[in-house]
Amino acid sequence: xxxRPAPLIPPRLRAILVRVxxxxxxxxxxxxxxxxxxxxxxxxxxxxxxxxxxxxxxxxAEWFSPSLLILVTLVGGLQLRLRSLAVLIGAVGVALAYIxxxxxxxxxxxxxxxTIGFTTVLAFxxxxxxxxxxxxxxxxxxxxxxxxxxxxxxxxxPALPKDWGRRVVLKQAGGSSxxxxxxxxxRHGSILEVALVDVSGKGVDAGTRALMLSGTFGGLLGxxxxxLPACNAYLHRQPEGEGFVTAVHLRLxxxxxxxxxxxxxxxxxxxxxxxxxxxxxxxxxxxxxxxVPDLHCEPDSGVxxxxxxxxxxxxxxxxxxxxxxxxxxxxxLGEAERLVxxxxxxxxxxxxxxMSAGHNDDCALILIxxx
Length: 371
Known about the structure:
By secondary structure, this protein is an alpha+beta fold. It is built from 12 helices and 12 strands. The protein has helices spanning 11-17, 21-31, 36-58, 68-79, 82-103, 110-133, 139-154, 203-220, 227-236, 325-336, 339-342, 344-356, and strands at 165-171, 181-188, 191-199, 245-253, 258-264, 270-273, 278-281, 285-286, 297-298, 300-303, 309-313, 363-369. A 5-stranded antiparallel beta sheet has the order 1-12-11-6-7, covered by helices on one side. Helix 3 (36-58) packs parallel to helix 5 (82-103), helix 5 (82-103) runs antiparallel to helix 6 and helix 10 runs antiparallel to helix 12.
């Protein structure tokens, strides 16, 4: 049997209260309309504001300091709509004027007025942003954090067999949680597919596009036979002026080590050949995504043997102001020599830190090797 919660008001008392017409009208007013919550909160905060003003003026300005109105204004900026916030600010002005009239203008000094004025501007900016998002309080930030966490989880490669190793390093510009570099991956049986994508721009500016494209590209990966042409067709249908996107796609058979690489304007993948002890540049190439209607890629294929490795990366590792891309690639291959003595897993992080030192750009690196 399900037990109902006990009513807040006893039935006998409720029967008496509903007979009072004035109380019934008040309850109906507070419950009426889709904006009842905003109206009720406005009434509560306005009443609290006027009460604080009266207590500060008539009881004690030390116990009920006028600076408490700053907190009320902040709560209004986090919870109220713009119009309701304007009414609350009017109530704050009335409370300050009343305090000044009773205690004198020294009780409301210029420092307090400047602080409340700054808080008012901040509250209006918060209310305006929430109004555009259609959310209350800090829910917009919570949604953004959830999207960030989803993007990070999506950037984790699937679990590989024991005879395979993998390492992913993502470093966003300015230490931001969002950036224009992201990866999507999927595994079906022994087939691993990985796509590393670089959206034009850096940091938070490119992060919004990366969040949108990561979901689209993640849905296409493993669902279509020609991944990059499908991504290109999607981007080509989008409005112009969105900026360019480069990507590299790796399809790897974990059972045999056979792989195929396709690229769309992305920096070339490099392979470590354990037999020769050198890094080799992949010949895969193609046009940047979203530029031409029909994308034609020249793939590169091969086989990873014991000790071999593949390294995918974004241009943030090799592009630097005033330097040629080829020289950046040569420097990357030179720094990559340190991966062999220390191991691919332990050397990936120092490699990214070394290559990204001195410039502020999104960087990403993926290492997949066969021990």
